[in-house]
Write a structure and sequence with these properties.
single chain, mainly alpha
């Protein structure tokens, strides 16, 4: 009976001693990449409009009577 009590106390002590040894591992975060916009930013429109206005202004013909 004495050895059974000592075995039970040894088991409980070992269980309590090893209860704090679990190391927390953070879950792995998956990275989601956003798709790149198709066609660019549209910054090419401003110089194109300026060029069009210049071409129209320089090639216009005025006829006077």
């Amino acid at each position: 009976m004495k050895s059974l009590t000592l075995a039970l106390l040894g088991t409980l002590a070992a269980g309590a001693a090893s209860a704090g040894t679990l190391v927390y591992t953070a879950p792995e975060v998956t990275m989601i990449e956003e798709a790149a916009p198709m066609g660019g930013s549209g910054a090419w429109l401003i110089p194109l409009v300026i060029l069009g206005v210049l071409i129209l202004a320089l090639t216009s013909t005025e006829t006077s009577t």
